[in-house]
Amino acid sequence: MARLPLIAAALLAFGDSVLGALQPCGKAQYDPTQYVCYDNQFLCPIIAGEPLSYCSGACYSKFQYQCVKNVLGVLPGVAAGTSFTLTVSNPTLPINGKFVTAGGLHLSLGGTTSSYCPTQVGSACPAGNITALAAGSYGGGLSMSTMVPGGQQVYLDPNWNLAYTQAHSAYIPSGSTVSGFAAYAGGGLVNLNGNGWGWVGCPPTASGGGGGVWNLVARNSSNAASLNNCTPVNLKVNTLPGGMYAWQYT
Ligand SMILES: *[C@@H]1O[C@H](CO)[C@@H](O)[C@H](O)[C@H]1NC(C)=O
Ligand SMILES: *[C@@H]1O[C@H](CO)[C@@H](O)[C@H](O)[C@H]1NC(C)=O
């Protein structure tokens, strides 16, 4: 997600010889793989593959903000209780457009949804073949879109992976973060913890036998350096009609 609230528009990319073919933006030179030029005078960076938009002197991400009559504001939050899926957004990655998927009590990028329906519930269970989350209050908690009594709470585990509680259990490891999530209508899921460092996708390692499934990690100032093999991504919110989408995720 956007590592901003606001990035001042006056970002100038100087004529650095390591960069590719530079282009003029007014009097400045910029690398079009890193920046986008508005009105031949304003440069905004490309972050997580998203050329940031421009609004009255500020660059912004459409996953979190909107520009209405030249005034920048946050997007409205998804109503609490509404279910939604998440898709990866970063056009530079092979997992662009793939779903965030539940499995092994954590959320990954581009995997297969793991869910369970008790036999005694049977046909009353939702299909459980897509991974859906349910919005909490703005900036508050988040849960999985499940029917199991007690629900399944979503949290950042101590390694800042996005995890969820096991059905029938409230156990959350100490050092986890249970609030500070915002799902924006028409935008993305944003981790408001950690000053806007955003999400990254980490490719499967050869030894991990990842099967094309990428890890999802929330960055912050202290873990960012250790995640340099990972790439920033936005998580696009796709709201769903009412109801829950699984009995429980496993
Ligand atoms: C989920 O299962 C339902 C019912 O079996 C099916 O109609 C639907 O196409 C499936 N969706 C996905 C994404 O697999
Ligand atoms: C950043 O994430 C790491 C886990 O990767 C966590 O240990 C640390 O406490 C977090 N830092 C902040 C400032 O929240």
UniProtKB/TrEMBL annotation:
Transmembrane segments: none annotated. Pfam families: Carb_bind (PF10645). It comes from the Eukaryota. Residues 1-20 form the signal peptide. This is Carbohydrate binding-domain-containing protein. GO terms for molecular function: carbohydrate binding. Residues 25-72 form the Endo-1,3(4)-beta-glucanase 1 carbohydrate binding domain. It comes from Podospora appendiculata. Keywords: Signal.
